[in-house]
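From the methods appendix. Each design record in this collection lists the tokenized structure first, followed by the designed amino acid sequence. Records were kept in a plain field format so they could be parsed without special tools. The example shown here is representative of the layout used throughout.

RECORD:
FOLD TOKENS (783 positions):
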């Protein structure tokens, strides 16, 4: 017993020593912190002046790639195969605190080039102009795919005469059922990230896209896609979202959204949710709840623009790290990704520090990306106001801060930086648009993930199947293209390139299932789904050999890929995996997520007895809720709390406002918003009014919320206060039609909208309660 005690103390002391040393090492990574200025100026700084305000770890610094007047209001970047940079510029975004002129079609996409290879852009042309706040970019061969605000349409643009300006425009995707939503341009999609699996992922809308032969295929993600501004992927195709509305710096990364939704409350800690600005940041939408005593932001409130660093131009320990912007904190977070028996965990790389922070009040990082040169790029919108107009209205906490700091004066600027390390040099500039498909194969083995992705995409977009034999050799580690053979990442990209060319076969997959690297085996299982869903018993048996694989990622992928097979053998493999791993949190949670996803897929069955119009309202409302409302209230209406954080908005489940008789109250809240404490609790997020949407949009959301989360209908005649009395049969005394539907009609919304047409502020619960009691009293008197 004494020996055990001493051994335990020794181990504990070692752990303490390790943690202390580790923390000291983290602190030593930075030089002296800038003196804290309690009253920073909101005045404009030139690019040269602003460069002096950055605080990074030793060995790292920023280089200016582009700035105003070459670019203004940049929000997203993308490179073509020759390393020319496309920049989306939202020229009408919040040009004052009232969002004046925001919906004017004056934005653009610029094309920047570095002609002398010094790392700085020196040539600029306006590739596309007269756009409405462009949101999404994706370069495919010599085309640029673009999406604008207030539309789900995707257009392809091409420069056919080489002058740097698009002269050919083609609509490649249009959703006929999409209804314009210009109520809040923050609550719309972003991304168009071409993932390893050849699908392009976006935020908000529950869909993903696949670009083939100049057209777009669409796949529905029945449990939604998640996220707000930004989506990215790692070397193995894992998707990462963030959700500013819910103050969530990372989510959706446990399983691919095609399989459902899965997040763990402890996938990062409460400490991870804290942010560490080096200046006061009083312009916080969350108000005092989100500020420390020194007025620095205490918690993520606007996470966005995330990426996984996959380049070769920074130290090796940087590769695979998660990068996310926090523009309100004037900072950029770097986080390590840890795999714990298949479950993914995030940890801040530095102890109470951010990777990049600035004392420039106008530093507004909104996007990041790994570049063709293997280095990390930061998109700085560089402006005063970063919140959209719904949160900057006169009298609001945020508006007072904007006015007092003069933040509305700083518009029309923008910078793009790259992170450089003193021990590394930028890589060479690619010429992929000019290379043959055979030459592009070399890119699949490049140490920079940007090159691998671009090469895979180029070969698939060309549809060149002459390289299929070489790809099969590469995928099965038999290629002689490389002196050291194809690395495991090259084998993975070769497999997905074959999949994209529709040239994969069972022989290749069988070899890949036996590969020495677990991520190649996992990839082979993933790609096998075409066979598995067709109940191919031979393929089911082959993947089933991995049910006891030493790697939990492989076992998790088996669950995901076999789930939709109707084969008894596939079901048996799933049962065996779960029986053998009852204590593995990831495997158990994955099965639960798959079950929930299937329930959502069949959601329409529960509406079968409803009138068609009511059913369509509820189903449409489900899509809007998962795309918009879930950002704050959670995908199941239970609120969002990850990493020990408090919920930014109240849970809807079991809310008094969703009682069946509270139809008018709920309508008022959705139209004009809600402020103040809710059920005795304060929340950092404010419910904005949605009155800019039409009556059918409002009715759809209300109908879904009441159907899915609301109370049960009354059982007695006349139990619905505030509504017209139910007609009663004079002979029987019973209602002619029992009111049991949760649906709110557009006509009912129209009445409430007209009743409060002059209202320009959010409701409080006290106001709503008094109004409801008054209407109930009037209704009882009329009866």
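DESIGN:
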């Amino acid at each position: 017993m004494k020996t055990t005690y001493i051994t335990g103390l020794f181990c504990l002391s070692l752990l303490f020593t390790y943690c202390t040393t580790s923390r000291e090492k983290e602190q030593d990574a930075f030089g002296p912190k800038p003196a804290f200025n309690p009253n920073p100026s909101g005045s404009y700084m030139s690019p040269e002046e602003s460069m002096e305000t950055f605080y990074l770890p030793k060995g790292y610094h920023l280089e200016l790639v582009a700035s105003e007047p070459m670019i203004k209001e940049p929000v997203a970047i993308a490179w073509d195969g020759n390393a020319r940079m496309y920049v989306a510029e939202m020229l009408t975004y919040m040009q004052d605190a009232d969002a004046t002129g925001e919906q004017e079609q004056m934005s653009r996409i610029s094309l920047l080039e570095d002609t002398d290879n010094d790392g700085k852009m020196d040539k600029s042309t306006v590739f596309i102009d007269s756009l409405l706040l462009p949101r999404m970019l994706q370069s495919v061969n010599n085309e640029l795919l673009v999406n604008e605000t207030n539309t789900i349409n995707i257009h392809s643009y091409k420069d056919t005469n080489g002058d740097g300006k698009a002269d050919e425009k083609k609509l490649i995707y249009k959703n006929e059922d999409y209804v314009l939503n210009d109520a809040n341009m923050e609550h719309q999609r972003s991304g168009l990230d071409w993932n390893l699996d050849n699908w392009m992922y976006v935020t908000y809308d529950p869909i993903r896209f696949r670009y083939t032969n100049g057209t777009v295929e669409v796949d529905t993600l029945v449990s939604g896609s998640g996220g707000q501004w930004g989506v990215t992927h790692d070397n193995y195709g894992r998707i990462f979202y963030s959700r500013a509305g819910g103050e969530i710096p990372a989510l959706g990364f446990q399983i691919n959204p095609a399989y459902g939704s899965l997040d763990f409350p402890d996938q990062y800690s409460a400490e991870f949710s804290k942010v560490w600005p080096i200046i006061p940041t009083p312009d916080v939408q969350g108000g005092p709840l989100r500020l420390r005593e020194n007025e620095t932001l205490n918690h993520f409130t606007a996470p966005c623009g995330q990426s996984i660093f996959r380049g070769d131009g920074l130290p090796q320990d940087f590769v695979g790290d998660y990068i996310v912007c926090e523009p309100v904190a004037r900072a950029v977070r770097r986080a390590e990704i840890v795999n714990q028996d298949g479950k993914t965990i995030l940890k801040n790389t530095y102890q109470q520090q951010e990777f990049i922070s600035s004392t420039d009040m106008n530093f507004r990082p909104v996007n990041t990306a790994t570049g063709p040169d293997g280095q990390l790029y930061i998109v700085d919108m560089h402006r005063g106001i970063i919140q959209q107009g719904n949160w900057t209205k006169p009298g609001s906490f945020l508006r007072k801060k904007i006015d007092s700091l003069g933040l509305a004066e700083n518009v029309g600027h923008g910078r793009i930086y790259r992170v450089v390390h003193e021990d590394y040099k930028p890589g060479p500039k690619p010429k992929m648009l000019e290379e043959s498909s055979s030459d592009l194969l070399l890119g699949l083995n490049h140490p920079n993930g940007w090159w691998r992705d671009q090469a895979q995409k180029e070969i698939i977009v060309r549809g060149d199947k002459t390289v299929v034999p070489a790809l099969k050799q590469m995928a099965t580690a038999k290629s002689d293209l490389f002196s050291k053979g194809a690395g495991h990442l090259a084998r993975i990209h070769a497999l997905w390139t074959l999949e994209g060319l529709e040239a994969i076969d069972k022989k290749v997959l069988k070899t890949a299932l036996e590969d020495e690297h677990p991520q190649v085996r996992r990839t082979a299982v993933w790609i096998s789904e075409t066979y598995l869903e067709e109940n191919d018993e031979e393929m089911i048996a082959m993947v089933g050999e991995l049910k006891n694989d030493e790697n939990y990622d492989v076992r998790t992928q088996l669950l995901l890929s076999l789930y939709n097979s109707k084969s008894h053998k596939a079901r048996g493999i799933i049962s065996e995996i779960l029986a053998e791993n009852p204590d593995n949190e990831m495997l158990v949670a994955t099965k639960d997520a798959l079950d929930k996803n299937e329930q959502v897929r069949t959601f329409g069955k529960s509406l079968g007895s409803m009138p068609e119009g009511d059913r369509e309202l509820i189903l449409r409302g489900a899509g809007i809720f998962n795309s918009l409302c879930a950002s704050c209230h959670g995908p199941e209406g239970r609120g969002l709390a990850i990493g020990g954080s408090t919920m930014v908005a109240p849970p809807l489940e079991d809310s008094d406002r969703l009682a069946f008789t509270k139809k008018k109250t709920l309508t008022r809240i959705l139209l004009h918003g809600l402020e103040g404490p809710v059920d005795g609790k304060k929340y950092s997020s404010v419910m904005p009014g949605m009155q800019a949407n039409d009556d059918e949009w409002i009715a759809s959301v209300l109908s879904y919320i009441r159907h899915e989360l609301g109370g049960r209908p009354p059982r007695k005649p006349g139990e619905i206060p505030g509504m017209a009395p139910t007609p009663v049969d004079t002979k029987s005394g019973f209602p002619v039609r029992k009111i049991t539907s949760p649906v709110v009609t557009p006509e009912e919304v129209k009445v409430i909208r007209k009743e409060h047409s002059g209202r320009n502020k959010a409701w409080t619960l006290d106001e709503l309660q008094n109004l409801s009691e008054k209407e109930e009293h009037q209704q009882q008197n009329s009866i």
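APPENDIX NOTE: Confidence is low (pLDDT under 50) at residues 1-25, 715-739.
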